[in-house]
Amino acid sequence: MSTSLANVPLNAGRRRVFNSVFSPASLQARSPFSPSENENLNASFQSTGSSSTVRNDSFAVIHPDGVADSDRDWDRAWTAATAFLAVPDLGFAPVYEGKDTDGSDAIQAFGRLSPPSRETADALTYLVSAAPQAADESKNLISWYGDEIRRHFLLNLRGGLHQLLKHPEQAGLLRDMVKCLQLARRIYLTPVIHELMPRLRASTQGVVLTQLQRTFHAVVSYSLPWSQISTLLAGELAQSAIVILGIDTLLEDSSSDEDSENDMQIDRHYSVSYDDWRQQSPEDQAHMMLDSEGSHVTIARDQLLAFMNGLEVVGLGGDKAQKVFASVMNIMMTEFVRAAYTDRWEAPTSALAHLRHWVDNVFCRLVVQVLATIHTPTTDNRVPSTADVSSGDIEKWQEISVARLGALRTSELFDVIVEWPASAGAIEDLRQFITHPAARAYVTQSFIASLNQRLLHPGASTVEILQLYISIIRGFHILDPKGVLLDRIARPIRRYLRERDDTVKVIVSGLLAEAPVTAATEATLPSSTDTLIELSTELARAHKLSLEHKDSELDWDDANWMPDPVDAAPDYRKSKSADVIDSLVSLFDSKETFVKELQTLLADRLLQKREHYDQEVSVLELLKVRFGDSALQACEVMLRDIYDSRRVDGVLHAKILSRFFWPEIQDQEFKIPDEIQSIQDRYSAGFEAIKQSRKLTWRNGLGQVTVELELEDRSFLEEVTTWQATVIHAFQSSDESTTKTVEDLTEELEMAAPLVRSACLFWVSKRILAEIKRDCFRVLETLPSEDEQHVAGPGSAEDENSVDDAANAAAAAEAAAAAAAKETAEAAAMEKMNLYWQFIVGMLTNQGAMPLQRIVMMLKIVVPGGFPFSNEELREFLAGMVTRGKLEIVSGGSYKLVH
Amino acid sequence: MDYTMEDTQNSAPDAVGESKLNSSAPRNDTQSVTKRLQAELMQLMLSPSPGISAFPDADGNLLSWTATITGPTETPYEGLTMKLSFAFPNNYPYSPPTVLFKTPIYHPNVDFSGRICLDILKDKWSAVYNVQSVLLSLQSLLGEPNNASPLNAQAAELWDSNQEEFKRHVLARHRDLDDE
Fold it and tell me: Residue A801 pLDDT more than 60?
């Protein structure tokens, strides 16, 4: 069309008029428009050289003969025609009120339908067709009418529309505005269509109409600030698109699953929901989104298309509107992916297929329909339906949608892993996404970020972290069988786990944990919170796996060998199976740390009095497969010790431990009863006779004793620790109803006071002993009867409420035992400290007095393996040395050796 | 799997190559020196010999130590405490450490700036010697000076001629280096 217009010679002139009229300066100057200023307007036209008066001149020039007559006729005709065509200044109100009607009233009100009087009709005919240069003449009247449209619009409608724009929050504002504009357009064009068109030659009809339309579009788009309109348009589009693309139902579904069941039943035949889709058969799936859409969707679609059409008609469409539409659809894509697939992690997944289907059938459909409505003017002469959207575009949208799903899954990945293995579907989805290095890098980066934020902090327990690490290993093995991603993700976790002190302990205790007996118990106890039971099952399982396929890096016959992936780290090592145990054990630089911890734990478990140690044996066997026999030799010896000991069981169930192979065992020294001592001696003698080179050292603090007590009114039978038994034995040997103080017992048994107290409190809790006053105990030969207790009253506190009292005593005994244990642990720590004492002495001897800070620093440097104590612990230790007179504190808080 | 090496492995190949070419040998040596000295220190701590003691200086690189020798009984140095400085070369134990008396000492084989004339610290050095053996040698040197090659001729002469006068000189020269 533009090309055809360019051929019209006066087109350029008309543009100039347009420019002069709509140059911002001239408009501002003339803002309080009134009809009386019409002349002024014309005058300004005159100055531009292409206005009505100029037209008169040119007429005169063209017709030099019969000047007066034709001039008069012309003037009269012009006056009549312009009077007829002029749009009455009724303001914005009638247009606004008429926007929701069919518009005929408003058009009537503006006098656009009343047929012209005969005289006027003649004048129109004359002006339009009488002159020889019909095109020129008609153009002149037409361009006057164009000016009239501009004038009227700016004067009457612009203010009203701006008023509307001041309340952008009003619902459907843009729709109203578009309706107003549509009505205004009809008001302006009705007389043209009814009166002018029939009088024009057919060839010029189209040109004239387009010209006027353009005038209208120009003034509309000039008057309305696009920034505001685009915001409104985006809102309007989003609202409709949410409905048409089915996003609203998805949101409803997820927010109110139960109570909207009935509504959903009605809508069931049209749904873009992923859940619904999955349940259908493949054939149904293909049709599901194509066939009959919900009535509300159809309505929304029709409304939107009508609106978009109106937008196009009033000149607000075109590529600007397309841009807005594109950005809205972009957001909608994300919204849909989010609404449809968030938390839908079930395996097997078909989210991707569903998404592609949705893009093909729902998304594209809307895009094609809308773009066909608001095509750019330049594409007028093309076939609008298919040309706007090519199959390449659709493919691109598919890709974008897959990327969006990937982004969603990536953001969910942490939760997905937490839910593993229930969330295998999500991993499948993600797998489709990580096809190129950038996506892989994105996944790992964002996952590491969320790991750091959500897992690798002091608030998470080591068990939790390990649990998740196991899930990560399994999940990422599915995601990326090559293990490159896992390799990258695992690094920060492994680094962090290595920093935790209890990591080894948790792993080892997990390995030794009792495997769940049946599948049922496993189901009820999927993950215990304090031990990684999973590990022991894993150990057994992995063992079976490793037997199935033995693969090594140097398998020269491997026809399926592949080089390491390009994005693998330099020291990336392929792990062919998701071997959880191996990953965990390799956390530590050497097996030694691991084996040492295993020994300690094994020692604890073996020293318990139990019938069999099958669990330990099997775990050890499995670990031997992994580490080799030599690494676990010590553990092996420990187990054999236990079995050997059993063979020489007699009165005394001794467990003979090979000191060299067992971890250091903390012991409490005390004197055991003479009877036991003699048995021990006999046992030792026998043992040493059999095994010449070996010598027995008794560990009295470890072990269990079955104690049978005969009291006056009751008997007691229970298994207790050796030291508890020793303490009660001390009471037996003495006369009845004697009291013993903790001090007495400490002396008699050569036992540490806290331990004695703990043992006594233990017996109080069993109601064998009674604490008469603090640290003074007596055997409770007869239980006080209920009455007696009441009589006894508050005087004897321990009898008052026996149940509570027993419980309290038990708690106290436990606390005391803990205190005793702590004391021995501290003693052990002190022993270690002695080595450091040598260092400190050497340091202070040679370097002179030093402050605490410096001592700590030096120790950290010179002690192999670092200095494990804190400043406070060292300060305490040094303070002890000061009181012992080995150190003194000199000026400035420095420690100095006392010679 | 040892991840501590990750960083060096990931750095630019040139950098690694360069450092390997230029500095890896001395650096590795420093490491082995440190290791050796740490082991020696541990040995000293675990089995201390009476009258001698040594400890690294606070500069933290273990290459300089301070040692203390208590004068052996029945020698002119009885009851005196002498401090020494040890400076270990980068190729220790293949070269001897530089040992100086910090405490002013009057001794035939020690000059007035504390330099010592002792064969095992010079040409007779062997890698099997260590801090402890050096200190023990010095301790015995205090009681049995080698007057054949004196650094302090007067002391050598006095040692042979007048033990009383020698001891007076020792005490006059001795000054306890107290903790600065």
Answer: no
Of B116, B109, B119, the residue nearest B155 (C-alpha)? B109
How many whole angstroms separate alpha carbon A180 and alpha carbon A92? Answer: 9
pLDDT number for residue A188: 84
Alpha-carbon Rg for chain B in angstroms: 21
Instruction: State pLDDT tens for residues A535-574.
Output: 777 666 665 555 444 445 556 666 766 666 666 666 665 5
Per-residue burial over B76-102, b = 16 or more CB atoms within 10 Å of its CB, e = otherwise: bbeebbbbbbbebeeebbeebbebebe
Residue A722 has pLDDT above 70, yes or no: yes
Find, among A294, A302, A292, A206, the residue nearest to A1 by Cα.
Answer: A206
Q: Under a CB-based contact definition with an 8 Å cutoff, are residues A705 and A719 in contact? A: yes
Interface A-B, measured as beta-carbon pairs within 8 A, has a size of 71
- Evaluate if residue A864 carries a pLDDT over 60: yes
pLDDT for res A133: 47
Which of chain B's residues have a Cβ under 8 Å away from the Cβ of A861? Answer: 56, 60, 62
Catalytic residue chosen out of the listed positions B117, B134, B158, B170: B117
Collect all residues with Cβ–Cβ distance below 8 Å to A31 and sequence separation of at least 6.
none
Rounded distance, CA A532 to CA A528, Å? 7
pLDDT band (50, 70, 90) for residue A392: confident
Provide the pairing of β-strand A715-721 with A704-710.
antiparallel
**Bridge partners for A771 per DSSP:** A777
| Closest-approach residue (CA) in chain B for A856 | B58
Closest CA to B120 of B103, B86, B97: B97
How far apart CA A802 and CA A108 sit, in angstroms, is: 104
Distance of CA A855 to the CA centre of its chain: 47
B80 and chain A: CB distance < 8 Å anywhere? no
Report the candidate in A219, A226, A144 with the shortest Cα–Cα distance to residue A185.
A219
Say which amino acid occupies A852: L
The whole-angstrom separation of Cα B180 and Cα B177 is 8
Q: For residue A846, give the nearest of B10, B62, B67 by CB distance.
A: B67
Residues 469-508 (A) with a CB less than 8 A from some CB of B: 491, 494-495
pTM over 0.95: no
Quick: pLDDT tens for A400-426: 888 888 888 888 888 888 887 778 788
Interchain contact, B38 vs A841, CB within 8 Å: no
Residue B178 CA to residue A699 CA, distance in Å, equals: 49
pLDDT in tens, A680-721: 787 777 777 777 677 777 777 777 777 777 777 777 777 777
Residues of B in contact with A857 (CB under 8 A): 58, 60
Calculate how close chain B gets to A416, using CA atoms only, in Å: 27
What residues contact A346, with CB distance under 8 A and at least 6 apart? A278, A422, A423, A425
- What is the Cα Rg of chain A in Å? 48
Is residue B117 flagged as an active site residue? yes
Count of residues for chain A?
A: 899
Q: Mind telling me how many Å the CA of A316 is from chain B's nearest CA?
A: 57
Nearest residue of A to residue B47, measured between CA atoms: A838
Tens of pLDDT, residues A618-647: 777 877 777 777 777 777 887 777 777 777
Q: Rounded to whole angstroms, how far apart are CA atoms A214 and A146?
A: 9
Indicate if the pLDDT at residue A41 is higher than 70: no
pLDDT for residue A654: 66
Among the partner-chain residues B1, B46, B55, the one whose CB lies closest to the CB of A846 is: B55
* CA–CA gap between residue A98 and residue A112 (Å, rounded): 14
Please determine, for residue B99, whether its predicted confidence score (pLDDT) is greater than 70. Answer: yes
- Beta-carbon separation of B38 and A586 below 8 A: no
Residue A289 structure tokens: 């989104």
